[in-house]
Specification:
This protein has seven helices and no strands. With 239 residues, it is mostly helical. Helices cover 79% and strands 0% of the residues. It is elongated, with a radius of gyration of 49 Å.
Length: 239
């Protein structure tokens, strides 16, 4: 009996100690409710910590990639700087050679963007026309070669009657020979040859005109502004 009383006394003492400790921790609040609230708050904090760590890792990767990109660009710029200085020097020299004191004067007299676009469009149309002319020239030359291959002689129409007398007696015609038909074909071939030569001469004139427009196009730049002032020295003729 005394043992049970002693055990009970120990339990009551432990209970009192635990109760006092909980009172200190939670005060008048409900312990279970407070424990649930704190547990939820801890879980929320842990989740936020994981998200923050992931964001930090992502940002660190982006910073590393940005630093690598910056170093690459700096290296590229360092390599291009001598070339840029050389091209700039050549550009300024060419400006002086064609009568400009500096770049600002050149920019002040340069054609407006609308006019440059118009000239670029005209140059493009001329390029397309030149392509068509080259195709036509190739076709005409092929036809000319074909006609030349069909010729039986390189004598002119006026020389053929004299040439024919050497093979027949005067006033006679070879058996089965249709000289009138042959003369008509030769005359037609001569006229066709002359027409083809005239067309080839016209095509050559147009080709020269296209070349002048291409030269102008290379000097003023393209409609989409891809040609910069740094590349202009390559387009200008060196003196």
């Amino acid at each position: 009996m005394q043992a049970k009383q002693a055990t009970l006394k120990d339990l009551m003492s432990t209970y009192s100690s635990g109760k006092e400790e909980r009172q200190k921790l939670f005060g008048d609040k409900d312990a279970d409710t407070e424990e649930t609230r704190l547990s939820d708050a801890l879980h929320t904090a842990e989740t936020a910590e994981k998200i923050a760590l992931k964001n930090r890792s992502d940002l660190a990767q982006k910073v590393s990639a940005a630093k690598t990109r910056i170093e690459s660009l700096q290296t590229s710029l360092a390599k291009r700087e001598p070339l840029l200085e050389t091209q700039t020097s050549l550009f300024l020299e060419e400006l002086t050679c064609i009568g400009f004191s500096d770049e600002q004067q050149f920019l002040s007299v340069r054609l407006p963007l609308i006019e440059r676009n118009r000239l670029a469009s005209a140059a493009k149309a001329l390029e397309e026309r030149q392509t068509a002319l080259k195709t036509t020239m190739h076709d005409r030359r092929s036809r000319l070669e074909l006609e030349q291959a069909r010729k039986l002689t390189d004598k002119t129409l006026l020389e053929l009657p004299t040439l024919g007398r050497g093979y027949t007696r005067e006033g006679e015609r070879p058996e089965g020979c249709d000289c009138g038909n042959h003369r008509a074909k030769l005359k037609g071939n001569g006229e066709a040859k002359q027409r083809i030569e005239n067309k080839l001469e016209g095509i050559e004139r147009q080709r020269k005109e296209c070349s002048k427009w291409e030269r102008l196009h290379s000097l003023i730049g393209s409609a989409d502004e891809k040609r910069s002032l740094e590349t202009l020295p390559r387009a200008l003729p060196l003196s």
